Amino acid sequence: MRASRLEPSERSTAGRCSAGQPGAAVPTWLIATATLLLSTLREIFDESAYSRFLARHEMDSCPSAYAAFLREQERNKARLPKCC
Amino acid sequence: MAKSLQILVWGVVSLLGALALGAIALHRGEQINAMWLVVAAFCTYAVGYRFYSKFISAKVLALDAKRATPAERLEDGRDFVPTNKWVVFGHHFAAIAGPGPLVGPVLAAQFGYLPGTLWILAGAVFGGCVQDFVILLFSVRRDGKSLTEMAREEIGIVGGFVAYAAVISIIVILLAVASLIVVNALKASPWAVFTIAMTIPIALLMGLYLRRLRPGKVLEVSFLGFILVMLAIWGGQWVSQTPAVAPWFTLTASTLAVVIIIYGFFASALPVWLLLAPRDYLSTFVKLGTIGLLAIGIIALRPTLHMPPLTRFIDGSGPIFAGSIFPFAFITIACGAISGFHSLISSGTTPKLIRRELETRMVGYGAMMAESMVAIMATIAACVLQPGIYFAINSPAGVVGQSPETASATISGWGFPVTAAGMHALAQAVGEQTLFNRTGGAPAFAVGMAHIFSSSLGGQAVMAIWYHFAIMFEALFILTVLDAGTRVGRFMVQDALGHVWKPLGRTGWYPSILATSALIVAAWGSFLWQGVKDPLGGINSLWPLFGICNQLLATVALCVATTIIVKMGKARYSPVTLVPLTWLVSVTFTASWQKMFDPNPRIGFLAHARQLASSVAPSHEISRLIFNDRLDAVVTGVLVCMVTLILLESAFLWVSVLSGRMQVKVKEAPFVPTRFAAEEQG
Fold it and tell me: Does residue A15 register a pLDDT over 60?
């Protein structure tokens, strides 16, 4: 699953809106921008990584699944320096 | 777009940029609007990106649209994930943007706004952006390998060792300087101390919320954490105005240093999920919001710069740090122009997310331009202050005098009028007891930011809130760097010690965790303690040391990049990295030499030690200051020697390759065609 390209659900939403039908309430570019912004924030804040973890292990979100995700993350995240 | 229209558009952008640069460079004796800096920056970045980065992409690196990246070839849904380019851009920017581009330009504003601005623009376009871009691409072509791995493989064992040593040195010095900035921002400020202290329970609460109540809802909990932090800022005002409570949070610099050292130890040893990760999320949330807010504020309010383009301190007699424009302006501003630290990020997570090779240009070169823009905003925030106020905040008591009256008289005598009463009124307006001698850059940035916002959003009535918001933002930012840096340093030490005795390398073995955490904390803690006890405010000696470390790491990164370019058979294009490398070598080696051996005691560590030894009666305190000076000189010397080794090893390799004495091949991953190109065409 390549969740951090635009999520399938996000892509399909964008697809529906991109038809640009007359009378559409929200401009297409606005939806696309908001979708992209949300995807970026979800990646920065590790929500996408958690979604991928759940998909990879075929698990539902719950405290134990999140604990397992955090254990996996610890290996990488804790080794990343924060830039000056 | 028709070619003639393109030429017209880029001609206009170039002319506008030249006009703006001319305006900021040639105006003398009158104040200019901050928008000139913004326009100059935008046009310079646009032209640099459109033409220079395109040249590098096409001719030097030959980016290949058909070549699969490691994110595609090694995709595992965990480390290697092909990701939308804008998402990677945001991720990369969030990782490289730290307190450096905010603090460095504020300190360098002692020369006036012109030197810093020109260096930020030229340094970024020809140095920093290029370094981030090429290292990112080279890491992508090597399965996401780190800088130290690439140095070992492409240059040699010495290169790998030096890169490792440079990384750990810069982490230690960075942590010391960062914590010193926090100490100077929080000392004698119950409001700021309370706000920052509250971020610890808020982060713990966020960690528990994420772990137990709403697993994985990071954006949601970050927003809740942000609201709690805003409440803490509001509560801090009450604390500072309540005589029974305020003394509990009114701490001296020494006490704060001890508290931060203890905090750093626990932050390194506690589980990541409990403190480090939620604090990181909160910090990122506040960081992105504040940078966006500051950008909007500057563009909407278009403040006037009160700082002259050049001050009298270009001669090297500056009160904030001693030393002339060359080389000290160029090591004081690192992250906004070129920062070696970025090469660690460019060869860390980011190359494992890149979907197409072509996207390395936007992510590597583009994100550094955004970081450089943050540095321009910091320059503006510092330069909107009246110069007298700027120098009163940033000058250490050891230079301008202990009392407000003496300091005001000294600064006014330099031609920058300021009064003790005026400074007292400003301190009252921002909810502080005093703003004199608040060295480190963070308080001046906070006052500048509060000044910009209070001119429209809420007026003077909320200036104190804006000031403490900015202090909270920077301190939170820096403490996150401290958390992560201490832990990364700990892992690096554990990795090294594991070769000596295996159990020490086990990251889950608590005796090893405690011992190595203590080692790293002691390393940066000793520099912090030195900075706190330094009568010149510590920043005078430690910030240049940090700048030297950071730029030496950039030297290592550019050595690696140049070596790879030469080995690719593209030596004719090597000036792309060789020119910034040569510049950095001349800057860092000159700065290092001056910091070690300059006869002026305000510049040279050893001259200062000699002055202390000869001019005052010996005491324990004086002996410690002398030891500190000698230690700083030795650290600088060792770093320079190590980088000299990697330069020599690289140069030997370049000569061998170019003279045909050595047949070498770059160690790239084999070519595999990307499926994305076909998908896009289909």
Answer: no
Tokens of B536: 């010149």
Q: Are B216 and A66 in contact (CB under 8 A)?
A: yes
Domain positions in chain A: 7-45, 46-84
Residue B174 to residue A84, Cβ atoms within 8 A = yes
pLDDT for the residue numbered B647: 94
Split at pLDDT 50, 70, 90, the class of A14 is very low
Is ipTM over 0.85? no
Interface test with A, best of B73, B78, B107, B495 (most A CBs within 10 A): B78
Residue B302 has a CB neighbour count (10 Å cut-off) of 13
Chains A, B: CB contacts within 8 A come to 150
Residue B68 CB: number of other CB atoms within 10 A?
Answer: 22
Domain that holds residue B563: 3-188+251-658
Across the interface, whether the CB atoms of A84 and B178 are under 8 A apart is answered: yes
Alpha carbon separation from B481 to A75, B60, B100, B172, B192 (Å, rounded): 18, 34, 11, 11, 18
User: B436 in a domain, yes or no?
Assistant: yes
Confidence (pLDDT) at A7: 44
* Residues in chain B, pLDDT under 50: none
The bridge status of strand B32-33 relative to strand B304-305 is antiparallel
Convert the pLDDT of each residue in B344-367 to its tens digit.
889 988 999 999 999 999 999 999
| CATH number (domain holding residue B86) | 1.20.1740.10
Number of structural domains in chain B:
1
pLDDT score recorded for residue B481: 81
Flag if A79 and B335 touch (Cβ within 8 Å): no
**In a 10 Å sphere around its CB, with 0-12 CB exposed, 13-18 middle and 19+ buried, how is residue B87 labelled?**
buried
Helix/strand/coil (H/E/C) assignment for every residue in B509-529: CHHHHHHHHHHHHHHHHHHHH
Distance (Å, rounded) from C-alpha B118 to C-alpha B227? Answer: 38
Which residues of A lie closer than 8 Å to B, measured between beta carbons? 1-6, 36, 39-47, 49-53, 55-56, 61-63, 65-67, 69-70, 72-74, 76-84
C-alpha distance from A23 to closest chain B C-alpha (Å): 29
Q: Which two tokens stand for residue B150?
A: 């690439």
Residue B611: count other Cβ atoms within 10 Å of its Cβ.
17
